[in-house]
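[Q] Does anyone have a clean structure-token version of this?
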Amino acid sequence: QVRIVESGGGLVQPGGSLRLSCVASGSIFSLFPMGWYRQASGKQRELVATITGGGTTNYASSVKGRFTISRDNAKKTVYLQMNNLKPEDTAVYYCTFNFEVWGQGTLVTVSS
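[A] Here you go.
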């Protein structure tokens, strides 16, 4: 049974940065894709970024050039570095393991 736990959310001013972390337990972490999704209040959950076991990345157009997804297979951890944050990035961010297991989410609020 894989379990994942996100951390790193918080309140940040526009233009600021945050790094989210997602730690997985169990299974063979390095073989599976990981991803970050987000859900703003009153909106559907949307893809932010994904990374395959081999390190191939994919980003939503709204975050490309500002966000970077990476993974450390030895630590069973995936990261989301978020720079130049905008108010519209405010959402609960969810990590997913192989698009099957989901974390509880971590809130990111971008506001002055």
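[Q] Thanks! Anything notable?
[A] The mean pLDDT is 95.
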